[in-house]
Amino acid sequence: MEYFISYYNEFNPKEEYLFLQPIIAHGLLSSLQVFDDGNTRLSRLLQHIKLMQLTNEVYQMNLTSPLLYATRTYFPYRNEYRYYISQLAKDANNENWNKWILFNLYRFQDQIYVNEENLEKLLTKRY
Fold it and tell me: What is the pLDDT of residue 92?
């Protein structure tokens, strides 16, 4: 847990780290308890908070809420999500980390499409 907290609070200004650190922190915390009622909601929330913080720091933005990075895109992939977490818990080798990171990057990509669609709806909505 000390390693997780230390890693989570670490700041690396490299742009590619913006996505990697939150995903790795999410995997670290989730793999500590791989039960159906485990740490996954908390882990996703911390992932999105960290992503928001890093976005603000790296790009000098002022996002005030991690809602931009909603976790709804994980729900259709729940079994796959649990599988990757269990693989990290069993053996945190490079291959399992790469699969975990790629899986999460796809969820980010899904969320970008959802955000674009929602933004278009909001912009075309008439009052």
Answer: 92
